[in-house]
Amino acid sequence: MPGGTNTISNASTFTGWLESTGLDDLLMNPCACIWGEDPPPPPLPGERRRPQNQMNGRQNGHAGSRAVVVEEPEPSFFSLASLFGGKTRTTQSIQLAQPAKSDGPSSLAFWQQRSMTLLELYTDQGEPSERCGDLNFNLDYDFNTQTLRLKIIQGKDLAARDANGLSDPYVRITLLPDKKHRLETKIKRRTLNPKWNETFYFEGFPVNKLQNRVLHLHVYDYDRFSRDDSIGEIHLPLCQVDFTSKPNYWRALHPQIKEKLGELLVSLTYLPSTNTLSIALLKARNLKAKDINGKSDPYVKVWLLFGEKRVEKKKTPIYKCNLNPTFNQTFEFEVPWEQIRDCSLEVSVMDFDTIGRNELIGRIMLGGRNGSGPRETAQWGDMIAKPRQAAIVWHRLKPGET
Prior knowledge:
This protein is mostly beta strands and 402 residues long. The protein has helices at 14-21, 23-28, 30-35, 105-122, 207-210, 374-385; strands spanning 6-8, 64-71, 92-94, 96-97, 134-142, 147-156, 169-176, 183-184, 195-203, 214-221, 229-237, 248-252, 263-271, 276-285, 298-306, 309-315, 326-334, 343-351, 359-367, 391-396. Helix content is 13%, strand content 36%.
């Protein structure tokens, strides 16, 4: 039940024991332990990097790292209620291994790229498809103790999930990609405007470790006799947070993504001199399996639309039994410059079936006015703003009709 006392020790698991002893480095990268570490990421233009012998590594062992949650206001004495079955002050901890210290600006840029890739894997940014409510929280980082403080303050106009038109909301907190260790607020009964004022501490997290994490806040409606219902969620990449400013957020909750269909890497280019719109379908990853063998036979179908009218269709070859195909197919359409803002491309990833109708795996719509999401619209805008240059973006496939 959310809000109860819970202590999680990473050292109690086999993986955690490897991390705490430093053997994870040997098992994950034996060559580095024998021949030395791999070279750092390439420097950015104009970057001044310190010599290797001045960089900090894992020289002083692995300090323990933990996350603790404390409900405010803190009591002035130790509670003994837990000895008699009562409730205690909410205290949760997570033991984690402390990674190497930051190597400088290039290291932060490297982690930022990883964090944004992680964000793309979990969610699209932009306005939510439906109103689920808003969540108020703030962040504070103590550079001396390497502690991240998260305060869940309140919710506003949350979506009702119970028959009485209300909800019993609580917030579940994770630092992705780690899904095993999670913290939760207490349940607020029969309200759509809860006030939690609970503070969570993640101790022993250096800045470079936070840079590759995504803060995931998921608001649930507690149900005693059935599975808790999702109200909405927020993904905040910590590489976007200025920890020196102690930011306070009001963020709109997004509906939970219930089904992951896979992703498609697409390149768009427009040549005004020849009125040529080019779309390159590079590759896909983590496609949903549609066949009984746990695979799919994917191909991609592209329609050029003017308004809502389909004008021209092209498609790639079929790739048998492949959930991560590399297409490397480029299609060209003739589109006059004065019509480039009015057209769009419908891209559908299909599963080929020898017997029966081909099934849709997922689709996206690329366009300036009717794009299927903010990333699709942004890529179309980049293509127009920078003609003759390729705009390359990973897109999450969305459900739809064939």
